[in-house]
């Protein structure tokens, strides 16, 4: 019952936010709102799911604060163009991004990338230690490279490579599973994640969520 109630609340929040995005887009299309006002209104809508300044509380929605700007631009355009099609992208972001123009996307990415990232939440010490080892060294015997080779020694990301430090643990697990199953298309991440066991994916996510 509690899971059903949570899902209902998330769906209601999404529908309200989508209505606000469409209203904002309609005003912009009718030249009734300057571009910066449109960006500001859309930021307010994003906050309904992603949290104030992008530090979301719900693991359904990723934290955007401090994310790499280029990555945010690429993802928002992928949502708008339906080229990112993992289940949550389809459910939540296709509708949200449908009316976003390139200048508004750039404004949103500029805003969220400039925010202070959320502090990490420490998890089980044994899982964190195992995850740190995978993050820093990979698992050579199973063709799993070190995550830090692309995402940086602190998980901060770089340009189109996302910041993963301080992200929700279950969100990170869900993305690794989506990459491994090809639900989220990315050949590099598919190769990097498909040899991880569910336990190893959880360990990496636990470590990163604490950073």
From the structure provided, what is the oligomeric state, counting identical versus distinct chains?
Answer: single chain
Q: Say how many strands there are.
A: 0
Task: Give a quick account of the main beta sheet: strands, pairing sense, barrel closure.
Answer: none
Judging from the principal axes of the Cα atoms, what is the shape?
globular
Structural class: mainly alpha
Calculate Rg over CA atoms.
Answer: 18 Å
Strand proportion, as a percent range, falls in under 5%
Describe the structure.
- The chain has 211 residues and is mainly α.
- The chain is built from ten helices and no strands.
- It has helices at 2-29, 35-50, 69-81, 87-97, 102-113, 125-137, 148-151, 169-181, 187-193, 198-209.
- Helix 3 packs across helix 4 (87-97) and helix 8 (169-181) packs across helix 9 (187-193).
- The model is unreliable at 1-5 (pLDDT under 50).
Keywords:
211 residues; mainly alpha; disordered N terminus
Describe how the helices and strands are arranged:
Layout: H1 2-29, H2 35-50, H3 69-81, H4 87-97, H5 102-113, H6 125-137, H7 148-151, H8 169-181, H9 187-193, H10 198-209
Helix pairs in contact: 1-2, 1-4, 2-5, 3-4, 3-5, 6-10, 8-9, 8-10
Short description:
This protein has helices at residues 2-29, 35-50, 69-81, 87-97, 102-113, 125-137, 148-151, 169-181, 187-193, 198-209.
